[in-house]
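Instructor's aside before we start: the two examples that follow are unrelated to each other. I chose them only because their records fit on one page, so don't look for a connection. First example below.
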Amino acid sequence: MWPRFMPIILGALPVLVCGTATLAIPADRYLVVDQLQHVPDGWMRQSGPATSTPTRFWLAMRRSNVSQFEEQVIARSTPGHPDYGRHLTREELRASMRPSEEAAAKVRSWLEWEHVPAESIEDRGDWLAFTIPLSQAESMMKTQFSHFYHPRTQTTTIRTLAYSVPEDVRPFVQLIQPTTRFGSPQAQDSPETFVPVALTAEDLAGNCSRTVTPACLRQLYGINDTEITPDPRNRLGVSGFLEEYARYDDLEQFLAEYAPNQADANFSVVSINGGRNLQYSLSPSSEAALDIQYALSLSYHASAVYYTTAGRGPMVQESGMLTIADSTNEPYLEQLHYLLDLPDKDLPAVLSTSYGEEEPFVPAAYAEAVCNLFAQLGARGVSVIFSSGDWGPGDTCMTHDGTRRTRFQPVFPASCPFVTSVGGTEGMDPESAISFSGGGFSDIFTRPSYQDADVTSYLQSLGNIYEGLYNPLGRGIPDVSTQANNFVLRDHGEWMKTGGTSAAAPVFAAIISRLNAARLEQGKSTLGFLNPWLYSLKQRGFTDIVDGGSVGCDEPTGAQVPYAGWNATPGWDPVTGLGTPYYETLLELALEAYSTTDHRTLTPSPLPDPPSPAPQTHGPNPSPKMATPDLRTLLTALHSSLSAHDLEKTTTLLTQAKRTLLQQNALIPTPTTPRDLLPLAREILELGALAAIRQTDAPGFTRYYQQLQPFYDLERDTPSNSRSSSSSSSSSSSSSQRSKITGLYLLLLLSMGDSTSFHTVLEGLVEEASLQGRSVEDDPFIKYPVELERNLMEGSYDKVWRETNSERVPGEDFGLFSSVCLPLPLLFFPGPRLGGIEMRWLCGWVLVGTIRSEIADCSEKAYPSLPISNAKNLLFMDSEGAVIEFAQQRGWVLRDGRIYFPVEPEAAARSEKDILVASGTIIENAIGYARELETIV
C-alpha cells in the first residue's frame, strides 16, 4: 500500500477560542527569534532574490511540556517500566503534542492578520507549514532575504541572518525555517573512499580481508537465518536525500551475487516533498545503493521502503526564479512530518539514515525542534538509526559563528539523544576503530540519563585531555558501531567498493529489523526507541572494541589540533560506542525485554559473552558458483510452471534463470553480451513480469518492466537484426511481448492513479507509432488501457465496468485488473477532486462493502434508530438476516424490530433540526450510491 500524505488544511473561518473569535492586534514592537552575527563560513552574500518567489515555511510553536514528554519517551523505552513496549498511536501522540489554546490562537491570528492564505496553511499540531511570497515573508518577519553562494559546493540558497515576530507572538514561536539555517545534509562517506572505486578480480573473490560482503558480516556478527513468519508491521525504512535513487536492477544483481538467500527481497519507493524515483538517472547513486543493498541483504523478509525526499537547499535556475519545491531545504522536517502523519500500520519499525552535518552549521533551535520530532517517532515505536559521521572528532574543528574558535564538531542528527548513532570499525581479527569514525560530545544536547554512567566513566579515564575543545556535559556519540569500510556494492551496473559510517547504519538497522521480526512472532511489540535498552544491557550482546581510534582536525583550511582524535577503550568510548553487535546474544536479550505489567514470569538466564568469530583467511565465498543450468531448459520449465499457475515453482525457476543470466553477462544487454542470449534473456524477464502480475506484486512487475526496456530499445533500434537473432537462436524463444507488457504497465499505472507516469509512457508510444505511420490504438494491448483511462476521465463508469468484464479484455493477465481501483463520486469521502466532483479511488470488488461501511457510519450520526426493513434497503442487503448479522458486528442494539444506534455525548446534544438535516443528507447520498451502483452493475 502506498502511504498518502493528507495535510490538515485550516479553514477560512476565524480562529475560535472558547467560542470567541480572536484576531491579533498589530504590534509596535517585534522581538528577534534568531540572529546570526556573521555570514556562516564558506558562504558569500550576493544579490537579493525575486520578491515574488514562493517559499514554504515551517513554524514550530513552543510547548511547555517538551522536557516532560522526552523524559517519558526515555522511561517508556526502558525495560521494566510499566509501559515498556506500549507505543503511542498517532492519535495519542497528536493529543499530547497539541499546543495550548493561547499559543494556537496567537500564532494563527498573527498569520491571519498578515494575510497568509488560509488554504496554504497546514496544521500539524505544534507545527504549521505555510507558503507565501518572499516579499510577504520579509514584511511579516521584519527581515530581508538574500542569495548566498557556497563556492565549494557551487550551490546558491536564499536565506537571512535574522528574523523577528510581534512581541505578543514571540513567547509562542520556537522557530521559523528556512531562514537562518545554512547547512545541508551530507552522505557519510569515508574520506579515503569518498569516490567508490571499481573492484579488482581479487576483490570479487570474496576475501573478507579485502572487501566486506553480506556473508562477511553474517559470519562476523553471528547472523543466522531462522524461520520467522514475515509480518507486515516489520517495515524497514531507508532514507534517501540529495537526489540519490535506489535502483531495482542493481539490487537484484547484488542479491543474486552476494545474498542469494534473499534473492527475492525487494523494496517500494515512497516520494516525500516531490522526491523522485529516477531508475535511469545517470547521476551516481552509490549512497542509495549501499543503504538499500545492505539493509535488504542482512534483514529477514522485511517490508522495505525507500523514502526519497526532495530538498537540499534551493537551487537558483537560469531564470533566477525558484519553484516552491526548489525553495525548501528542510528535508528532515518534510520527511519527519510525513512519517508522523502516517497511520500506525504504515509506519516503519526501523528507519536508517546515512546523512548528517556538523553541529556548528545547525541552529540550536532547529536541532532541538527536529530532535523532538525524532522523539515523537520513537514514542510511536520507530527505531531511528543514524550514521555518526566520517570526520572523527571534527573536520575543520572551528566554530562557524564568526569567532572561528577551535572546537570539536559532533554531527547532527547523530547527536540527537533520540536516535541511535552508529560509528565505524574495520578489520576482522580483531575489529578495531576506523580512523574516520565520527564521535564526540554534543554542544546542543545535554547527556541523557540512559548513558550517564557509561559516559561519566569514560570521561574520568580521559582526564583533562582536550579540555575546552568539547562539552563534557553533552550527549555522547556514537552509541554502537559496525564495519564501515571496503563494502562491495552495485551501482549503475558496475561493481564498486566504498566505505563510511553510511555503511554501518543500514547494517545495524538490518539487525534490529531481525530482532523486531522475532519479537513480533512471539506477540511482542517492536523495540522502538533503542538507546535505553541498549545501555541497560551493560555491553552484553556487544563486542567491546579496544583497538584503534579516530583522527581529525587536520583540514588545511581549519584549526590544526595535533593528534586530535578519540581512542577506543574498554567500555563505551566516543569512537565505537558500546561496541559491535553479536546477533544471537542480542536476540535472546531482545526477547527477554519486558514491562513490569507483563502477565508472565521471566527468569533470565545468564547469557554468554559473544564469541570472537574466527574469520577465514580468505573469507567465505558468498555466492558459490554452481553448474550453470541450460537457459533453454529453464525457459521451457518456466513456460510450463506459469501455464500451470504454479507461482511458487515459477519464482524459484526465475531466481535460477536470472542468476544464470548474470553469470553469462546477459541480465542487462551490453556490447559484450552474446547475441544469441538476448532473446532468451528478454523472454525470461517477460515471464517474470507476467508472474509478478499474477502474484499482484506491483513493485516486482515494475522492476521487470524497467529491466526489459534496454532489450526493447535494442529491438526497436534494430528490428530486423532482432528478429533474425531471435529466429536463429532457438525456436523455443517466442517473439517479443513488448506490447503486452507495456499495456499491463499502463494498466497498473492507471490502477494506482499515477496519471503523470501513464501519460509519459503513452506519449513515447504515440511518437513511436507516428514515426511508423500508424496509430497507437492499432495495438489492442495499448488500446485497452487508453480507452479505460479515457472513460474514467469522462466519468463513464458504466463503460469502464463493461470494458473490464467483457470479451474485449485483450488477455488473461489483463482480466486480473477487473478489480482495478476506480474513482467513484462519493460525497461522504474526502479526497482529490476531479472535474469539480469529490473523488476517491476505491477497488471495484470492495465497492459495496466500503459504501456500506460509510453509510453505516453516517447512519449512526443521523438516526437514533431505524426499522430493520429500512436498514436492509439503505445498506443494500439481500435479507433482514444479513442486516442482523451486520448490526451485531457493528455493536448495534436490536430490539422490537428496530436497530438502535449508539449515542455519543455530542450527538445527544444536537437539535432535532440538525438530525433532520443529517437525515436528509444521508438519504440523498444513499440514492446517489444506488444510482451509481445500478449504472455499474
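Example two begins here.
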Amino acid sequence: MLNPAQCHVRPPKGPHTPDHTFEFGQPPVKLPPSPDSVASDARSVSPSNHNLPVNLQRKTWASPQKLSINKLRLKEPRGIPQSRIANGSRWASTLRKVGAVYNYTRIPSNQVRLLLLKPGNFEDDLCISLITVDDAQVGSEQYPYCALSYHWGEGTPDNIVFVQEDPASRTLRTVEDVVDANRPKKLTVKPNLAEALRHLRDESIIVSLWVDAICINQFDEEEKNEQVMKMALIYSKAYNVNIWLGSDDTETDSPVSYLAMSFIPKVIDPNIHAKLLGDEVYVKSWASLFELLRWSWFSRRWVIQELALARNATVHCGKHVCLWTEFQTAIAIFDRYFDTLKPKLIKYFATAHPDRWTRDDESMFRIKHLGAKLLVDMSATLFRSKKNGDRESTKGLETLVCSLSGFDTSDPRDTINALRNISRELNRPDSEAAKLVPAPDYGKDLFEVYRDFVEWVVTSSKTMDILCRFWALKERKTPLPTTPRLVVLPSWIQFVEDSAWGKGEDVFNGRQAGDSFVGLPDDHNYYASGQGGTYRTSVVQFSKKRTATPQGHHSGSASPMAVKHDMSILVRGVMMGKVSFRTDPFPDGIITKECLVRLGWSFDKNATTIPEVPDQLWQTLVADRGPDGKPTPSWYKSACQSILAHQSNNGHINIDKILHRSSMLGQPNIMQAYLQRVKGVTWNRSFVQAKSFQKQDQVEDQLQEQLVGFSPPKTEVGDMIVILFGCSVPVVLRPTYNAAEDMTEYHFIGEAYIYGKMDGEALDEGYGEQDFRLV
C-alpha cells in the first residue's frame, strides 16, 4: 500500500537536476539517453539492453507489491468499548471502498496531462498517476515523456487502470475525505491500450507517457477542442513516439509479429537481397511482413500526424521493437520488389490459408494502396527542413484529407481534425491563412463540420472539385457520448466508402470503383471549366439556416431540441444534355459489346483483320488521358486495336482475363499498360449516352448531338449532364421537384467523363448559364 505522504508528485528541485524524481514512493523517472545510443539491432529487447530508453525495454517481470486493502489486516480488537469498535468498523468500511471511479478535474487551456506509469509485473494491475504540465514545459528537461501512437481498437472499455491522485490538490475536511484522496480510482480503457501499457511498463522505474484516451477527458468537449489543437505540440515535443501495432504472441507458435519483425534487419541489408528474393525459405517471412502491413494501426487516421510530427519513433509489436526508420526502409524495399514476390505470395497464401486466400484472386495482393505504404511515402515527403532547422509541411489540408482518405477514425468529425495540425496552412499558426482553417469543435454535428470544410476549400481554392472527391467518412450508426446528434448528409458530400479502394481494411478486398477523374487538388487532369483567361470560377452560396423544435414531452424540465439544417447549396453552371441511355455498371473489368458498338466499333468474330479503331473508342476507354492524368501515349491506339482482337465470343472485353494471360507469359507489353488504364477508368462505372440540348434555348424537344462517356453507377436515364463553374469535369445531377418550395432541386450523382467536353469546349458552344440548388 502506498504511503499517503509519498503520493505527492514533486518536480525536480532545480532545472539542472540530472535525474527527474517524481516521488510516488517508487523509483524515479530517468531521462532517456539520446537517440544515437539506441541500438539499431533492438528487435526483441532483453534485460541486457541497458543502453535503451526505458520505454523501449521489455524486461523479465518481477512481482512488485500489489495494491490491496487486505494488507491492512483490520480486525476488531478485544477489550475495547463497543462505541470505539463501531467507529473502527466504520473506518474499516470506509477503507474498503477502494475502486471509486476517477473523475477528471478541468485543467487550464495552457496545460496538458502526462501519464506516469508505475512499475509492475506484466500481469499486475495497471497503476498510474496523472500530472499537469504547462505548455511551455512540455518535453523540457524536467518533463520528458514518450507519446503513444496506437489504434483504439474494438472491444468494450472494461480494462481497469488505477489512478493515484495527489492528495495535496484536494480540500480534506473529514476522515472519509482523507481516505478518498489517497485511495486509487478506476479508469476503464479498451483492451488494446491496456495491452500496450503492460508491454511498455518497466519493473523498476516509472515510465512517463502521453496517451490521448487517458490524458484528455474524452467527455469534456471544451477540453477536447483545446487539446486536439495542441497535438502538434504534444507529438513534436515528445522524446519518442512509441508506435504500438498490437500483439499476437499467444495466438500461435510462429506469430506474425515474430516472423515479420525479426525479418526486418535482413530486408534492409542490400547485400542479401538476391538471397531473400530467390530462396524459397524466405517466402513465409515475406508473407508475414505482408500480413503485418494489414494490421489495424496502419488504417487509423490519427497515426498520420502522430508519425509525421515525431522527432524519433519506434515500432512496438508484442515484445519486439525496431526503429521506425528501419521499418520505413523495409517497407520501401518490399514495395520495390513486390511484383517479383507477388506470384510466390499468392502461391504461399493459397496453400497455407486456403480459407482466406485463393490462387486465382489477385485483388488482395497489392501494396501500393495499403495504409502502411501510404504512411511510408507520406512520412518521407510531407515535411521539408528550413535553414534554421525548423520543419514545414509541403501539403495543404485539402490534399491531405483527399489523398489520405482511406484512413479511418471512430469519430467521423476527425476526418479533418486528425490532419489539420500537419497541413501547410498551419506552418504559421498565427497567419491569416491559418486562422481561416476550420478549428476543431466537438459541439458541432457532422454536417456542420463537413459543410465548414467544403466552404473553406471552395473559398480558398476557387474550385468546386471537392464535390467530386471521395473524402468524407459516413455518419456513425450510433452516437458517441460527445456526438450532438446524428445526421443524414446531403448528396454533394461524397463518401470514402465509394472510392476506388474504399476505407480502412476495404483495400484488402481489391479495387471496387474506378479512379477519380478530378484527381487530387494539384493534379489538374481536366479543364471542363476552362483554363487561364477562359476559366469560369466557382459561384456558390452555402446556407447556414437551422431550425430547432422541441422534441417530445419532458415534464419538469426543458424539452431537448431537434435541430434541422438547410443542407442545400446554390451553384452555377451550364446544362449540356440529358442521359438517354446507360449500361449497367461494368463488373470486375468487363467492357460489354454494347458499349464498344455505341462507341463506333463493328464486331465481327469471323474477321481475319482488325479494322482501324475510331478515336472516340480508344480515347473514351481511357478517358483521353494516360496514367496519373498525363496526356495519352502515342501507342494507345495501336494497343487498343490489338486488344480488340481478344474479344470474347460474345463481343466483350474481359480485362482481367487478358491481363492474366499476358502476365503468365511474363512479357509486359503495351496491351497490359493500356488495359490497366482502361480498368482504372471503367471499373464499376456505367457507359452513358446523352442528347445534347439546343444551345441557348435548352429546350428538351430540340436535342442535337449525342454525348458519350462514363458516369457513376447510380446514373439513371433522365439525369442531367452539367458543368458546374469551378469544376474541372462534368457532373451528373438528378432533378427532383420540391412541392413545399415549388422549385426544382438537384441530387449530386457524381463526376463524369464526356468525350470532347473535358477541356472547356462546352463554354464556347453557347449553353445558357443557370443556378442549381444541390440537396
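DSSP finds 22 helices and 26 strands in the chain.
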